[in-house]
Amino acid sequence: MNKVTEFSSPFGNMFIAFNELGIAGSALTQTASLNRFCKEIKDFTGADCEEVSSLPERLEEALTLWSEEHDDSGLIFDFANSTSFQQNVWNACLTIPFGSTVSYGELAALIKNPKAARAVGSALGVNPFLILIPCHRVIGSDGNLGGYAGGVDLKSFLLEVEGVK
Asked: Quick check: helix, strand or coil at residue 163?
């Protein structure tokens, strides 16, 4: 069973789904209803959602550190239903500093698979941990924003909040 609650972030209120393994998914409340978010989490994890009023203390502390100091080192994700390639891509995204961007090709090189830029894009496109795993920081080599699961307007907004021009 996944539990879901809201968390206030610099990007807006977020739904956070979590279970005993870690964070199972995240989304901005402005872009997803609770029902839609829970359906996506069930599709990803195979487990239903139960709405709760608060986060466990450890997770609250980790998310606060992420929110206030851009430090994601305390975040623990439930990657159980993802491929090793997706995990490599998502973990590499976590190394992109706040306010910075890299290209799809640079991210592919970072995971030691330099010809996999398109596959990197595919892995980012199914990232259920939007914003927490900052796939919005990955752009085209020509500076084009590329795609984003939450839409290009949201990607542009997130980068703007981070101070990326």
From this structure: coil
Q: Residue 49 catalytic? A: no
Task: Give 130's strand partners.
Answer: 133
Q: In which residue are the tokens 């978010």 written?
A: 37
The pTM (predicted TM-score) of the whole model is 0.93
Catalytic residue among 38, 49, 93, 135: 135
How far, in Å, CA of 62 to CA of 129, rounded? 15
Mean pLDDT of 40-62: 95
- Which pLDDT score, from 0 to 100, does residue 31 have? 87
Residue 25 Cα to chain centre, angstroms: 8
d(CA 75, CA 90): 13
Residue 131 has pLDDT above 90, yes or no: yes
Within 8 A by CB and 6+ apart from 23, the residues are: 16, 17, 59, 75, 76, 77, 78, 129, 132
CA gap 131, 159 in Å, rounded: 10
End-to-end CA distance of the chain: 41
Do residues 63 and 100 touch, judged by C-beta distance below 8 A? no
